[in-house]
Amino acid sequence: MSIWKMGSWPTRAGWREVTIDVQTDDADGSVRGTLVYDNVEYVIVGNWAAAGSYPVRRHSALALWGTNEEDATVYVAAIGIIDGPGNAPERIDMNLNRSSTVTGEQMAWHGKLLPM
Question: CA nearest 45: which of 20, 18, 26, 10?
């Protein structure tokens, strides 16, 4: 079991557009915890795959998805490539999408997450 606390680079005001606070199971690759995007918290689950755990797997990657757990649901999904060891990633290059049942809009974010 590893804990990843990572976030985008802080803005000038000091807040981060995206953060994750997740527990990973190194045995089965499961991920669960929270993701904050644009100051909204999402409960997420997902999976990650470690480089080298399969002969042709040269890079570590992850996929996350979840909701804001409100009646007017907002969904979030993210994928990324992980740099560094699985117990303490040094960087995640992430693509994130949000879909709102309130506004009918989709928003996207792309950036790097670094240890906090």
Answer: 20
